[in-house]
Amino acid sequence: MRITVMTADEQILSLDVDPNESVENVKALLEVETQVPLQRQQLLYNGKEMKNFEKLSGLGVKDEDLIMMVSAGASSAPTNNLSFNPDGSAVNPEAFQQHIRRDSNTMAQLFQSDPELAQAIVGNDLNNLQQILRERHRQRSVLQRQQEEEMALLYADPFDVEAQKKIEAAIRQKGIDENWAAALEHNPEAFARVVMLYVDMEVNGVPLKAFVDSGAQSTIISKSCAEKCGLLRLLDQRYKGIARGVGQSEILGRIHVAPIKIGSIFYPCSFLVLDSPNMDFLFGLDMLRKHQCIIDLKENVLRVGGGEVFVPFLQEKDIPPSLFDEERLSKEASSSGAPVASSPTENSRNARAAQATGNVGGAAQGPEFEAKVAKLVELGFQREAVIQALKLFDGNEEQAAGFLFG
Questions:
Q1: Domains of the chain, start order
Q2: If you count Cβ atoms within 10 Å of the first and of the last residue's Cβ in the chain, which end, N or C, has fewer?
Q3: CA–CA dist 290, 267 (Å, integer)
Q4: Phi, psi (5° rounding) for residue 198?
Q5: Phi/psi zone of residue 213: left (φ > 0), alpha (ψ -120 to 50 degrees), beta?
């Protein structure tokens, strides 16, 4: 591995050393490079003195880490200026920042290996620099603890059942990490947010951005949107019921027919009206099939009438941010099994069933969810950010990790 050594006279040295090399051997290499006798050298890592008999790996030194070298008989003031606190922050952040800034080689290496830290050193926010230094120290500590646990497993009793379970879990996790790293390298787009399909339509003459969802059984319009389009007066309340999917939502009734305009052509359309203020209009499978629509992802268009009319899907910049919440809510209402409308004779029975079953989407997270949270927190992320990421990707640990890293 390669380490960077900064001397008291601001000389920067890069050394290729073995992780299991002793500190004394590193000092011998530095003696050749700097002409400073081994006995007069004092090496500091994270503000702590490195003893001659200690190994680099035992001290937690990693590739591209920075080590300070001062003379044993030198004044303590420069050491204090460039040393580190136990939490990884600099004792004198301003002196540390200026010291690194003056060395162009170190700055070039930082911009390649750690752009965030390099930007903090170039910037003027010392609090941000201290926070990043603490975060890097914490990440190194977590990684060191994991490595120590792995080393302990190597020497564990082969007949210890609990130890064997931990070894099995470590092997499984290693395979998962390798698979995740391969995905980041070869398939990074899998971790990006997928923009759902929206098109411009007119409903009863009112322009809307329609969410095209072939996984929803029925076309849905919200009560507020139906009122805006002047269609609420046509609401048939005999078709009240419950829309069940991942969650559930109340169906207020049905509008049997109204004109929608796609491109330059008008088509008849029927809607279920939901009491969902956060979801305006969803173009579902019933109308997609009725009007022989084709979702053409190669050309990124929606074709209607077997292809005679087509409209482009909206780009992400053309979709209002508020609609991204609509996607989630509409999925809860319809995507898993799609909305189920009650017939007039089944209204009371479905209402009683809905009241008894409640909303499954609001179930409390169990130990499996907490295990995912703990695993991602160990990677160095804040618990609140981890919980939000897991909820955003419906508990998908890999996608949440990609989102946090990205």
A1: 2-134 (3.10.20.90), 140-191 (no CATH), 198-362 (2.40.70.10), 367-405 (1.10.8)
A2: C
A3: 10
A4: -125, 145
A5: beta
Q: Is the pTM of this model over 0.85?
A: no
Tokens of 317: 């910049």
Interaxial angle between packed helices 126-154 and 115-122, expressed in degrees from 0 to 180 and rounded to the nearest 10:
150
Supply the pLDDT for residue 359.
Answer: 33
The ranges of the chain with pLDDT < 50 are 74-80, 331-364
HEC per residue, 218-262? CCEEEHHHHHHCCCHHHCEHHHCEEEECCCEEEEEEEEEEEEEEE
Instruction: Measure Cα distances from 226 to 102, 171, 258, 400 in Å.
Output: 65, 56, 11, 36
Say what the pLDDT of residue 278 is. 66
Q: What are phi and psi of 134, to 5 degrees?
A: -65, -40
Q: How far apart are the first and last CA of the chain?
A: 26
User: Mean pLDDT over all residues of the chain?
Assistant: 79
